[in-house]
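Can't attach files on this board, so I'm pasting raw text. These are the components:
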Amino acid sequence: QVQLVQSGAEVKKPGASVKVSCKASGYSFTDYYIHWVRQAPGQGPEWMGWIKPNSGGTHFAQMFRGRVTMTRDTSISTVYMEVTSLRSDDTAVYYCARVTPVGIIDYWGQGSLVTVSS
Amino acid sequence: EVVMTQSPATLSVSPGERAALSCRASQSVSSKLAWYQQKPGQAPRLLIYDVSTRATGIPARFSGSGSGAEFTLTISSLQSEDFAVYYCQQYGQWPPLTFGGGTKVQIK
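---
Top answer:
Structure tokens for the assembled complex are below.
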């Protein structure tokens, strides 16, 4: 069965960076883009961007460009998402998600809580 | 960017009753609309895509309708496990993928 397993919760200070991992299994890793979506407490989901696992190509939502990077290691079917210059409003649960070519999110990771606090 | 607006923010319904949740897009997204269910502490789960197609394993009491910019998710007879937050998401004009703010369905 398809699974996306993410790394654990993190607590960071403002200005620091955080890197979240997402290990895929149960399907061919290079067949689907992996997207990242975050959800602040009590808010709806917010799309951040995607990575194409076979080439490593990326695309980011405007508000995250320059502050977010996405990478992958195809040998272990894992993608990584790093956010730099963290602010308190980056406190959220970060999800990786498998997305079909048309944009349907059919599988989600379990989420990784990132708390930014001094 | 397509803005998605859901109403109401909270819906109080008794078990066994019908619930209708609304989702409006700021511009037409054709039939490229999905619904997700989220329970506390869990990731969202795909319920419906292409406006009205149920995802694998989703019971028939969940149905979707609409087109263009106005959509509805209907739960015909609410079960205890259906009390949750529901989000709509458009994939008609992306990137970016955009979501509504959610409707919380709670027990009346």
